[in-house]
């Protein structure tokens, strides 16, 4: 993968406070270093940003997933965009590996807000010229923007990992969707590896509570990989894993792009039938969330390649076609 910036005089990569390790790795993949920016808080809790370099006419990229604490990281992003705009940056791209509030993308009940659209409006009002993100919870969120949105996919990284892991055991492998909403993602995953698919049919009686109903497909005596875009409290994925085990699956693996892992997630995963959970580093994992069951792969090279293509006005779609 060729992602090195061929002429880095006109580009600067900044990092917010949410995932500096990923930002450093992206800059390293680009063959450059992070530009100077100080991000912090005043004593009353207000966020502040100080840009430490000249950015006039420069192509600027801000690496910042809007993950926990989502309101703080989102505000940091908006303030950094505003600071760069007022410093006459040539173009400002928000690189948001994880787009917070993406699950609030429609009115599910009367008087519900559409917060994903509100976030899009805020980014554009602040002065953002382009957004680079990965695995939006709903791809139609791109339509909330009037600026270009490059939507990268995490599946290729995960597919590559499992192809290598099970290259000689494909006949025992099944890909499983933990719910109806993830069927499309799971089907493309299964087709890429050339194995069968199963589907968990579940009912969600209330937010963050899921109940498995039944399993569509044959999983008895099989190694099963559960595929999802994100894992939050881990109720859905752990219930699915336990149901698969009860139906005779011999080994259960799980993977996702975004490891939100809030509340009781780590405890649930530790106690569940999941043998290994593979996640991407779109969200930083603090020490308290790192366990022997969780393996993290990096999206740094993919995002660096996309940044390089954007900077050189080359096609980004080639990365996920």
From TrEMBL:
Q: What is its main location?
A: cytoplasm
Q: Which cofactor does it need?
A: Mg(2+)
An example Gene Ontology CC term for this record: cytoplasm
What is one GO biological process annotated to this record? 5-phosphoribose 1-diphosphate biosynthetic process
UniProt remark on cofactor binding: Binds 2 Mg(2+) ions per subunit.
Entry binding sites for D-ribose 5-phosphate = 204, 228, 232-236
Alphabetical list of InterPro entries matching this protein: Pribosyltran_N, PRTase-like, PRTase_dom, Rib-P_diPkinase, Rib-P_diPkinase_bac
Recorded hits in Pfam families, A to Z, give: Pribosyl_synth, Pribosyltran_N
Q: Which residues bind ATP?
A: 44-46, 103-104
All copies of the Ribose-phosphate pyrophosphokinase N-terminal domain together span: 11-127
| SMART domains reported for this sequence | Pribosyltran_N
GO MF term (any one): ribose phosphate diphosphokinase activity
PANTHER family for this protein: RIBOSE-PHOSPHATE DIPHOSPHOKINASE FAMILY MEMBER, RIBOSE-PHOSPHATE PYROPHOSPHOKINASE 1, CHLOROPLASTIC
Role description: Involved in the biosynthesis of the central metabolite phospho-alpha-D-ribosyl-1-pyrophosphate (PRPP) via the transfer of pyrophosphoryl group from ATP to 1-hydroxyl of ribose-5-phosphate (Rib-5-P).
State whether it acts alone or in a complex, and with which partners, per the record: Homohexamer.
Q: What is this protein called?
A: Ribose-phosphate pyrophosphokinase
Q: Which organism is it from?
A: Petrocella atlantisensis
Q: What is the lineage of its organism?
A: Bacteria, Bacillati, Bacillota, Clostridia, Lachnospirales
């Amino acid at each position: 993968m060729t992602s090195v910036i061929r002429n880095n005089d006109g580009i600067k990569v900044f990092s917010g406070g949410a995932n500096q390790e990923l930002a450093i790795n992206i800059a390293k993949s680009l063959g450059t270093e992070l530009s100077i920016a100080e991000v912090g808080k005043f004593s009353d809790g207000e966020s502040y940003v100080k840009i430490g370099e000249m950015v006039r006419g420069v192509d600027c990229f801000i690496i910042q997933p809007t993950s926990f604490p989502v309101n703080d990281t989102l505000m940091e992003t908006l303030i950094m965009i505003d600071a760069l705009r007022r410093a006459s940056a040539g173009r400002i791209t928000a690189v948001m590996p994880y787009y917070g509030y993406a699950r609030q993308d429609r009115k599910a009940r009367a008087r519900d807000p559409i917060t994903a659209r509100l976030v899009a409006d805020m980014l554009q009002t602040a002065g953002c010229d382009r957004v680079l993100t990965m695995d939006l919870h709903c791809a139609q969120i791109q339509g909330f923007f009037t600026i270009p949105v490059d939507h990268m996919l995490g599946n290729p990284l995960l597919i590559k990992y499992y192809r290598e892991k099970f290259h000689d055991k494909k006949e025992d492998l099944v890909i499983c969707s933990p719910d109806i909403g993830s069927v499309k993602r799971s089907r493309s995953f299964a087709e890429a590896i050339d194995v069968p698919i199963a589907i968990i049919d579940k009912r969600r009686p209330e937010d963050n509570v899921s109940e498995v109903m039944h399993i569509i497909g044959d999983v008895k005596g099989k190694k099963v990989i559960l595929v999802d875009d994100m894992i939050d409290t881990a109720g859905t994925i752990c219930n699915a894993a336990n149901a698969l085990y009860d139906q005779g699956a011999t080994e259960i693996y799980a993977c996702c792009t975004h490891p939100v892992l809030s509340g009781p997630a780590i405890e649930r995963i530790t106690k569940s039938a999941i043998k290994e959970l593979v996640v991407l580093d779109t969200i930083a994992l603090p020490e308290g969330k790192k366990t022997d069951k969780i393996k993290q792969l990096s999206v740094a090279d993919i995002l660096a390649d996309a940044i390089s293509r954007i900077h050189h006005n080359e096609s980004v779609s080639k990365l996920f076609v």
